[in-house]
Automatic annotation (TrEMBL):
It comes from Coptis chinensis. This is (+)-abscisic acid 8'-hydroxylase. Belongs to the cytochrome P450 family. It is a single-pass membrane protein. Its EC number is 1.14.14.137. The lineage of its organism: Eukaryota, Viridiplantae, Streptophyta, Embryophyta, Tracheophyta. Pfam families: p450 (PF00067). InterPro entries: Cyt_P450 (IPR001128), Cyt_P450_CS (IPR017972), Cyt_P450_E_grp-I (IPR002401), Cyt_P450_sf (IPR036396).
């Protein structure tokens, strides 16, 4: 009996020993084990109070004042602790390039889990590596100049439709109206000519979804978050119908949906849905905020508005009959208007920073960036550095007559996650400005000095304006 039991016990102990060894080895080899870099100092700065860190300091003032004062005190790399997370903030072009471009594999995109749930966890901006590369290729295919040049007439139709709907109103909320325009263009770029069929139902669901986007993530009946999640489900159902109809029709299409549905891509319906909802999210408020700022800056700078108007009238005058419609090459002959867009993107820096998370301990300029810490490249600080852009608060589009130095100008981000929709954004802005400046005049309602964040920087109250056709008497001044 003992002869039978002893070898079994020995085997048992042996396997237990192997199991323990395996666990120890895993623990040692996992990067949670402090790396040799842990002896390096952390960047200068303060982590504030336990857990709450410096969150109150960040939100009790304009966040950009917080970032700027920290940079002044500690330099272009500093640590802080906000929203429950230890962070390293960076504000030099070199550091931004390190995080976003050359060492981007060491820094993954990071979003709160509730945002991922709401937009869809398969959306490209939550990922890195092979899946992200594959999706990015598909998105870029649909938004590169060769693809979007074909939709200029439809974009123009949407711009004209928006402007017509505004000129009858007593006054409009610029941001709200620009959101509708940017939404319609985004849906056009995703669904092509099917846009018109689904635009309204997609918009009403999206409207509910966005209301809960910045709410507390409490999924109980009646909460904004709960309503948002329901709207998200509805959006997924509408998109399922669209997918089904596309598959039945088997038509040749060249929009983003077609790019996602390509046979060789083998994306699941869920992946397609998450990415479509994600692209609309990335496309709408960003473009709408920039358009709103442009109207504000042009309104405040009459000589620049005059130069833009003359450039656009010149393009219009050279056209006759059917030809009056804009085409892609016209949009490439708008250097003054394009510089206004560039300067607006710089001064307003609507995405004043982005978030990454260190996937392992990283050394940067002799400092440790510990694994798991958030890393925030501060685009706005770079765009407002007087060493890079002299007199940075001044709205001066002529500064872009000379191209900015590499990595100093990143309104569309940089590197692996840089904005694939930037050409479309510029196109829709140029088309709207062409018709706005040649046919309309506008004036701001009330004094407009404040900035609000929601989450993008925006003129106070979304910039209410009065708009009128140029053939009628000028809009009354403020
Ligand atoms: C003026 C308007 C816009 C601005 C300022 C803007 C800005 C940005 C920035 C800064 C990023 C990079 C974020 C990061 O690195 O974390 C980004 C990413 C992205 N943008 Fe835009 N964007 C605009 C319009 C658009 C439009 C019109 C679309 C689509 C039609 C779009 C689609 C995307 C997507 C899908 C990503 C994620 C890319 C990735 O993770 O690989 N954006 N955008």
């Amino acid at each position: 009996m003992a002869a039978l039991v002893l070898p079994s016990l020995f085997c048992l102990f042996f396997f237990f020993f192997l199991f323990v060894l395996h666990r120890i080895f895993r623990k040692l080899s996992s990067s949670s084990f402090p790396s040799s870099l842990r002896k390096l100092p952390l960047p200068p700065g303060s982590l504030g109070w336990p857990y709450i860190g410096e969150t109150f300091q960040l939100y009790s003032q304009n966040p950009n004042v917080f970032f700027a004062s920290k940079q002044k005190r500690y330099g272009s790399i500093f640590k802080t602790h906000v929203l429950g997370c230890p962070c390293v903030m960076i504000s030099s072009p070199e550091a931004a390039k390190f995080v976003l471009v050359t060492q981007s594999h060491l820094f993954k995109p990071t979003f709160p889990a509730s945002k991922e749930r709401m937009l869809g966890p398969e959306a490209l901006f939550f990922h890195q590596g092979d899946y992200h590369n594959k999706l990015r290729k598909l998105v870029l295919r649909a938004f590169m100049p060769d693809a979007i040049k074909n939709i200029v007439p439809q974009v123009e139709k949407l711009a004209l439709g928006s402007l017509r709907s505004w000129d009858t109103a007593q006054f409009i909320n610029t941001f709200q109206e620009m959101k509708t325009y940017a939404f319609n263009v985004a849906v056009l770029s995703i669904l092509g000519k099917d846009e018109i069929l689904y635009r309204e139902e997609l918009r009403s669901c999206y409207y509910v979804l966005e209301k809960g986007y910045n709410s507390m993530p409490i999924n109980l009946p009646g909460t904004l978050f709960n309503k948002s999640m329901k709207a998200r489900k509805e959006l997924a159902q509408i998109l399922a119908r669209i997918l089904c109809s596309r598959r039945q029709r088997k038509e040749e299409c060249y929009d983003l949906l077609a790019s996602f549905m390509g046979d060789s891509e083998a994306l699941t319906d869920e992946q397609i849905t998450d990415n479509i909802i994600g692209v609309i999210f990335a496309a709408r408020d960003t473009t709408a905020s920039v358009l709103t700022w442009i109207l504000k800056y042009l309104g405040e700078n009459p000589s620049i508005l005059q130069a833009v108007t003359e450039e656009q009238e010149f393009i219009l005058k050279k056209k006759c009959g059917e030809e009056k419609l804009l085409n892609w090459s016209d949009t490439k002959k708008m250097p003054i208007t394009s510089r206004v867009i560039q300067e607006t993107l710089r001064v307003a820096s609507i995405l004043s920073f982005t978030f990454r998370e260190a996937v392992e301990d990283v050394e940067y300029q002799g400092y440790l960036i510990p694994k798991g810490w958030k890393v925030l490249p501060l685009f706005r600080n770079i765009h407002h550095s007087p060493d890079i852009f002299p007199d940075p608060e001044k709205f001066d589009p002529s500064r872009f007559e000379v191209a900015p130095k590499p990595n100093t100008y990143m309104p569309f981000g940089n590197g692996t996650h840089a904005c694939p929709g930037n050409e479309l954004a510029k196109l829709e802005i140029l088309v709207l400005l062409h018709h706005l400046t040649t046919k309309y005049r506008w004036s701001m309602v009330g004094t407009q000095t404040g900035i609000q964040y929601g989450p993008f920087a925006l003129p106070q109250n979304g910039l209410p304006i009065r708009l009128s056709l140029k053939t009628t008497s000028p809009a009354p001044a403020k």
